[in-house]
Amino acid sequence: MPWGSRAWTFQEAVLSPKTIYISKYHVYMECNALTYCETLDVSRSPIHQAPHTAEFFQGENYLQQINTGVLRSPLTANVNLCNNALRIYCLYTTLYSRRKLTKQSDAQHAFSGILQALQRSSYKDGFTWALPHQDINWALWWQPTSGAQRSERFPTWSWLSWRGHVVPGQPTVDGPQEPHRYMFDLAIWKSSTSGDGVQKIFAKSYDDMKAEDRESFIDDPLAGTLPTGDGGRITQLQKPDFEARDLALCIESFVLTFDLSRWIARGISINKHYHFFQIRMDCVDISIRVIATSEVCEHPGRQGEKTFLLLSRSIGDNDEKKCRNEQQMWVYHYLLLLGPIDDGIFERRCALRLKIPQDGLRILKSLNLTRRQVLLV
After folding, report:
1. pTM surpassing 0.90?
2. How far apart are CA 279 and CA 285, in angstroms?
3. For residue 267, what is the enclosing H or E element?
4. Tens digit of pLDDT for each residue in 202-217?
5. 369 C-beta neighbours (distance < 10 Å), count
């Protein structure tokens, strides 16, 4: 297996302060600022001459200037990357997932150096099955691409459970620098590493939003207080005899229940990665984008109500019809399709994005909006 396609060598290339590559034609040297070969003089380049101070690495243009295409990493710069942590995490997750492992059971070990570097620089709260606690609502929204295969060695909600290229979840409208700008009441727990009890690893609320951002949501059902059903899931997670205890997350969030087979199929994206569905309810047009590799698209005629878990949301214009110069703003809801295993226990099936007009959020109630605690394994 070539060195450049092996998963184990990825963190070696990214985290090494200096790397020398010897090919048939050139010898290349790579460091944290640039890459050059023996036949080119790049000593006068702007990057080569720039002052490599903390201010330089934290500048707005740094990520555009740095040579990320050849694996150079700001992780080794020993600076605070809080504003770009999710972007960096997503970049290296997707690059790593393209590589090959002889044993899929090594998937987390071969990525552990990257996770440790991220934890030192920005994700101080740590990781669970390679997902960062501070951005776990977005990290749960990863998407496998065509050709990826499911592995049974890891929890269904971690991208480690797939062999092949995975696209990590991140805001598609706000950008990674403001991943929690538009929040709602959301809390996530895991079993404690000490062996007893649970640990809350993520908590956000509607009140965390700025006043001007809250005004962007008209007649927002998520702003009200809904009773939480299945409140005993945390207790179940605490039980020592719960077999999936170390693989489970307890998530308290909003849940939608509806039958997607009643929606109108609008087609498939050019790259065949997404399927689009649309429906009109109470004079409001809403649409949903589903990952094409999911069972929803493989069996679109399969009827029955499904359970969808809300993880995040954002606001933007109509990204699918910009050529029409529409001024309508939309609220994007990032969902997971849940597959039932037992009472209140689910596995992760696929990622979806629900798009609703900014002035039509009342339609969420027509999609059987409730608030629940679920166990994801």
Report:
1. no
2. 6
3. strand 264-268
4. 999 999 999 999 988 9
5. 17
